[in-house]
Amino acid sequence: MQKILIEIKHQNLTFSYCDYNSTEGNFTSITEDGINHITTTLEYIEKKLDLFTLYITRSINENEIIYLNIDDYNLASIAFKLTNEKNFESIIFTEEATLPKDLYTLIFENKTKTKSIACYSMTKEMFESFSGNNIKVSLQKVDFLINKLMEKNEFKTYSDIEDAYEINFNFKPDIYDLEDFENFLIINKNLEAINIKEYHEGLEKQIMSILIKNKRCGTTINIHENNEDIIKYLPHLKQLKKQCKKCCNLKFIYSPKYKFKIIKKQIKNILIFVFISLLVIMSTYIIFELINKN
User: Are 120 and 140 in contact, with CB atoms under 8 Å apart?
Assistant: First the structure.
């Protein structure tokens, strides 16, 4: 049988399980180095609920507790009972499992309030619901982002996704990858630039459509010229750039090889122009001389 350990430390209130010791009885309280440890049973808490609630409320106020830590999802119900109507900066679930649906419902039904929730993972629907209610979510594991987008951008943690200012599309995306790009935008609020390093026809329009849908119109789309295939699309892309000024900033990043090729072509055209001009001048001079001789 397990006992419940309630720990009050600095600004943290933590609920966890501990091993049961029959010699300790139903309730033990130890204060050491400013840390208060209470071990008890669920049955004893429910029997003395008013007493425990009063004690926890006083401890929250005296210690200015702003973080509620729950080590096991099964402890959430009793933790919420004892902290009813209290406001926390964050509720932190440390169990390495997806947030259960019944607990997700309980969080909204309960009068214990918070500005943010941290847990191992949750469904996309839960994430959107919390975000829609101005509750910030931090996840250890993001289940609803497909691996390709994360892998190609070397995103390892939730924070990597949340804080990214720039992402790369250096692969040919399919419909699922574009859906995951939408999921990425749910979490990330800092995105400033998207690099298309492997161009595929129509990709820029799909990305623009998603950005507009998610009201992220200030984002720059950098199309990198890394292969010859994009050359044939440049007239269309340049026209598109003029049309989309209000929604997105479309830029072209040319490779040194391509820049050299353009410069070489321009020099060639200039030389041809100079050569033709000289021919015209010489021809005009010769004709003028012939006329004068006659």
Answer: yes
